[in-house]
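Reviewers of the previous submission asked for a worked example of the structure-prediction workflow described in the proposal, so we include one complete record here. The input consisted solely of the amino acid sequence. No template or homolog information was supplied to the procedure at any stage.
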Amino acid sequence: LTADDLTQTIADPDLAALETYYKDNIATYTLPERKQITYAILTPDMVLDQVDLPDDALRAAYDARRDEFNQPERRLVERLVFLDADQARATLAEIDAGTTDFETVVADRGLALADIDIGDVTMSELGEASAGVFAANLDQVVGPFDTDLGPALFRVNGILVADVVTFDEARDQLFDELATESARRMIDAKSTEIDDAMAAGATLEDLEKEFGMRVDVLMYHDGTDAEVAGYPNFRAVASAVQDGDFPTVEPLNDGGIFSVRLDGIEPPAPMPLDEVMDQVSADWRTAQTRAALEAFANDAIASGAVAGSSTSLRDLKRTDVGAVATAEILAAAFKQSVGDKTVLMQNDNAVIVQLDAINKGDRDSDDTKALRANIEKQFGASLADDLFNVFATQIQQSAGISLNQQAINAVHANFQ
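From that input alone, the workflow returned the following structure tokens.
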């Protein structure tokens, strides 16, 4: 049953109803304990405007990665090797005549297509076969051509055209990559200076003036959605910082650095109702709708009326969890007797679960035997561990503890 099945309309709440709901569910609208943290941060993006990259450096980077930016024409190829060229030519003639096909020839050799797939290749990688293969059409079989393994037929599965990226086209990408790397090196070089400055008494606010770090204040808790909290290491440091901890330079995973200072701890506190009024109103309406749906479902059961849309599921096991038969529905069904009806609330819907039949399990099925064997194996391993622990404990208790004073004296002598 969904909200659309309700015949009654949920009226708009008045202020008194919202105040009551707010008080009854105050935990939902209570901020967790928060740390007031001042942090200083410096990221590569913040110093990119200080990076100067001449065209010579970009050109050198392009030349070093020329193979990446200039991909030659390639073919996706399968290669089938024969004992001699005559056999290969005869097979090709049969394929061309249509009396057989390439897949059948491969299968008759006891091979799979994956066994003869040589992937994507360039013309320079095919040797004598290069001209013939690159002149072939898609799915065409050509050959035979001599290879290191003997005469072979080739089939073209795909044609990959050449991909050429000019320097001008790659320039922006190269600049971004090189500039970011240069910015990371600049920050890495500054990190030692920043650490030394803080050791000499510089505050986080001083770092903003001297090193260009951005300083801000954050009310931090585990659920904060602040951008800086997207850095895993920032979250780890902010969660661990304690009153009196000395700020230190910490790394960020993008090559940046940061430092934090704990200014205070705010205890959990309810958010003012006027600040969360819209959320409280929406939550109240959801709660009222759920309550109305649950009552409607129970009334339908009591009166025997047909309500909502129904789905019939058969031969379900406890483990057959799916989109319709959820874990909650299956748990309820396996507690019912035949004919019982139960109302469950799932998300914002009411679900009436009726048990129609109970089918006894097959103790002799392969699944049951496998399950029984697995349980017996687990039980045996657990029992063996328990017996060993009991035996070891008994030995310790009966044998007692003795000290070898001579060995202790020898160890002490080594410390002196």
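The radius of gyration is 37 Å. We consider this example representative of the routine output the project will generate in years two and three.
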